[in-house]
Amino acid sequence: MSSLSLQKKSYSALWFVIVSVLLILHDQVFFPAAVDAKSNVYIVYMGERQHGNLDLITDGHHGMLSEVLGSDEASVESMVYSYKHGFSGFAAKLMEAQAQMFAELPDVVQVIPNRLHKLQTTRSWDYLGLPLDSPTSLLHETKMGDGTIIGLLDTGIWPESEVFSEKGLGPSPLDGMGLEAEIGQPFNTTENPDYLSPRDWLGHGTHTSTIAGGSSVHNVSYNGLGLGTVRVVHPGPGWQCTKCAGIYMVVYSLVSHVDQHDGISIASFHAVVRGIPVVSAAGNSGPSAETVSNTAPWIITVAASTMDRLFATHITLGNNQTITGEAVYLGKDTGFTNLAYPEVSDLLAPRYCESLLPNDTFAAGNVVLCFTSDSSHIAAESVKKAGGLGVIVASNVKNDLSSCSQNFPCIQVSNEIGARILDYIRSTRHPQVRLSPSRTHLGNPVPTKVASFSSRGPSSIAPAILKPDIAGPGFQILGAEPSFVPTSTKYYLMSGTSMATPHVSGAVALLRALNREWSPAAIKSAIVTTAWTTDPSGEPVFAEGQPMKLADPFDFGGGILNPNGAGNPGLVYDMGKDDYILYLCAMGYNNSAIAKVTGRPTSCPCNRPSILDVNLPSITIPNLQYSVSLTRSVTNVGAVDSEYNAVIDPPPGVTIKLEPDRLVFNSKIRTITFRVMVSSARRVSTGFSFGSLAWSDGEHAVRIPISVRSDFAIP
């Protein structure tokens, strides 16, 4: 990229930017790379660049490589990328011992092994309160986000898709050097069906990008299901490039390892301090605790929820009782047929769905009922191969049923419903069932839930930093796919936090268009403090798992994304570079390491600052012992003359007091700092309990979640 600064220029359309490799906005410097089976790609991170002479920065990188490797020729052969815009550093093919030598150099902050990161609509924007025909929504207030540029780090896009309709653009630029260096040989596109360019082969990037931006396409469905307009929050064409100026935000539906030593956290830091919001996926490792990824406080980390759409599929039992399940079944009505269950002796373990085999003779000619907490399509494939006519999967964990064959009935019900069907099977000698094709149902009584696969907090790296931050629709989302995918449709249903992330990024882009002067932290605060803690109809949000429970901040952060509310938050919890330095000091990083990252001398206080004082739109206390105090600051972005009163909903067993508990803003006072005193009479260690703090002026309720755990050391 030639520039990372925010530009005032108005753009007539939204542009997508595919940012390759590290989420760094950089010019690629390509060099021929010899293959060495014993070497791997490492990123040598040198922190903030010290000057603006880009050629001199790259020369310095080569000089360092030459010094360690012994020759200029070895430097040229080893170099993969030179990073010189967002920060200073380079990627090179190194032996492990050579990487260690670089790690010990005084100008090097960190040496990071290169990693391949895991990848993580017609209804969702209406569900979030942004219908196209509303004259008062944030979508229209911002003229569809006109002038906002999004940098997308994913598997690429399929530019021929109608959603990316745009004539007159050049071919996709090549960008395969890093991949070739990582795999250690020239990339064989015959053995590895992919492209050495931003062109998408997998389909993931095409799908996620059509959620956030592109052109609206009418009368789109997945073979009749979810019929409507595939639209994005920013109607307009898309374009892929590796050298684009003026990125306004970055979105990546990837997950990093659950540690601090990853390139994504470092790269996103440099983007955020330049005023570029970064939105990331929480990961798909739920519902277990402490599985959330992308946990740096400067990142907006997104969980996945369901929405008020159900692909309803009727199951009619032989006693004429009709039950509604969920499926993506596009075949014909089966008529009444035999219904079977894999009964075993009471002395043996029950046969769950995943234990069904293609040679199970009992399944032939029958619809099979089974129970599972795993993937439904595994049972479907086994039953189909055994000659079965369909499968009813009982589980309290929602599965992505689009992975089942479209013409083979693979219907999911809850464990409770499954038990009712089993009672029917055991009550009659010849149980029968009829399965009907799926149909689309919108609105009540379909509830909103945090999806079972969505990764959960607390953060294992910094438990006092609440993650995830927010949740958005990420289950059965319809988006475009590459045209070579062997289906009869150009649009496909996918589930994951990867699908939730571009929903939030779309809202972030609208907020950026509405308030160009807002910092990434202010945008994050607006999203978190205005989030829904109930679904749009006012019903509570549950979190899927074993068992299902009411959702808490470790499931969905502040709550479900509320774009219109975020456009008018009243107050924001703002942060800048100094606040992030406070976080790094609180995490125990030394002055020299922080100075290299930030590009300026840093002196952490002699007494390590409290991580509880990082000005986040949340309060998380993982180890409360008796009492603790912390501070927060809020900035008025609403009416100049405003008064807010505190509304406290403390976690059970916890007392919270504020000083002051009333905030008065005027033309001279825009930011106020308040003190929060938290105490508990408990004398035993507990799990987390949850509450909230809201500032109310009668129009706004600026709410932040509170999570507290009492933790006492055993003497």
Index terms:
715 residues, alpha/beta, Alpha-Beta Plaits, Rossmann fold, Glucose Oxidase, domain 1, 4 domains, 8-stranded mixed β-sheet, 6-stranded parallel β-sheet, 38 strands, 26% strand, disordered N terminus, hydrolase, serine protease, serine-type endopeptidase activity, signal
CATH overall fold name of the largest domain: Rossmann fold
Fraction of residues in H or I helices:
10-25%
Number of domains: 4
Silhouette? globular
Number of helices, where a helix is a run of at least 4 consecutive DSSP H or I residues: 16
Number of DSSP E strands: 38
CATH class of the largest domain: Alpha Beta
Low-pLDDT segments, ≥5 res: 1-37, 167-176, 232-249, 256-260
Instruction: Report the end-to-end length measured between terminal Cα atoms.
Output: 56 Å
Q: What's the CATH architecture name of the largest domain?
A: 3-Layer(aba) Sandwich
Instruction: Note the main sheet.
Output: 8 strands, mixed
Main structural class: alpha/beta
Topology:
Elements (H helix, E strand, L loop, with lengths): L14 E4 L21 E6 L8 H16 L2 H7 E5 L5 E6 L1 H8 L6 E4 L4 E2 L4 H4 L10 H4 L7 E5 L23 H7 L20 H9 E2 L2 E6 L2 E6 L3 E2 L13 E4 L1 E2 L7 H10 L5 E4 L18 E6 L3 E9 L4 E5 L10 E4 L26 E5 L4 H10 L4 E5 L15 E4 L1 H13 L4 E4 L3 E4 L6 E2 L19 E4 L3 E4 L10 E4 L2 H18 L5 H10 L12 E2 L5 E2 L2 H4 L6 H4 L4 E2 L4 H10 L4 H8 L20 E6 L2 E10 L5 E8 L4 E6 L2 E4 L5 E10 L8 E8 L4 E10 L5
Parallel strand pairs: 1-7, 7-12, 8-11, 12-14, 14-15, 15-25, 18-19, 19-20, 20-21, 24-28, 31-38
Antiparallel strand pairs: 2-4, 2-5, 3-4, 6-13, 9-10, 16-17, 16-22, 16-23, 18-22, 26-27, 28-29, 30-32, 32-36, 33-35, 33-37, 34-36, 37-38
Helix pairs in contact: 1-2, 7-11
GO molecular function, one term: serine-type endopeptidase activity
Pfam families: fn3_6, Inhibitor_I9, Peptidase_S8
Family: Belongs to the peptidase S8 family.
